[in-house]
Amino acid sequence: MIEITADMTAIIQQAILSFVATVNEDGTPNLSPKASLTVRNGVLYFADIASPKTIRNLRRNPAVEINVVDIFQRRGYRFKGRALILPAGDGEYSMIADWVRATNGQEYPVDHVVKIDTTSITPLLSPAHVFAQPPRSQDEIRSTYLQKYAVKPIGE
């Protein structure tokens, strides 16, 4: 398992929304948005709150890819690996379920918790990082996209 770095954790926390890809029975892709992706002790987890198809796919084929991009920084990561569906009552399951409910409310169901054995991590960079001439700093890129989306940072 490849450990998740502090920068990867920060991107996951800032982006909030990630996308989990699994493989349907017929071989086609299934893409499911997740706001529950989190890192604990250098390991990726997400909660199944309303994704029965994702869980069905992972039971049959544990291959998974997760993409997370901070839209304002225009960068993120692609995590590939194998999923392990944790049973209710497991300590790791409880840790993530408790976090989901503390964050969102006790009424949120946590049907399953999925732990990712990460086998590959690739940075995702938009053309704003790759092709801009002259190269722009991360602060310039962030400022440009905050303005583009008409968003003001908290506290401003």
Q: What does it look like?
A:
With 156 residues, the chain is an alpha+beta fold. It has one domain: Pnp Oxidase, Chain A (Roll).
List the total number of helices.
Answer: 5
Order of strands in the sheet with the most strands? 2-1-5-6-7-4-3
Fraction of residues in helix: 25-40%
C-alpha-based Rg, rounded: 17 Å
In CATH, what is the class?
A: Mainly Beta
Q: What's the number of extended β-strand segments?
A: 7
Mean pLDDT across residues: 94
What's the N-to-C terminus distance? 40 Å
Order of helices and strands: HEEEEHEEHEHH
Which fold name is given in CATH as the topology?
A: Pnp Oxidase, Chain A
What structural class do the secondary elements suggest? alpha+beta
Low-confidence stretches: none
Main sheet?
7 strands, antiparallel
Entry keywords:
alpha+beta; 156 residues; 7-stranded antiparallel beta sheet; Pnp Oxidase, Chain A; globular
Task: Give the topology.
Elements: H1 6-15, E1 18-23, E2 29-34, E3 38-40, E4 43-48, H2 52-60, E5 63-70, E6 75-86, H3 91-104, E7 112-125, H4 127-130, H5 138-148
Antiparallel strand pairs: 1-2, 1-5, 3-4, 4-7, 5-6, 6-7
How is this structure best summarized?
This protein has 156 residues and is of the alpha+beta class.
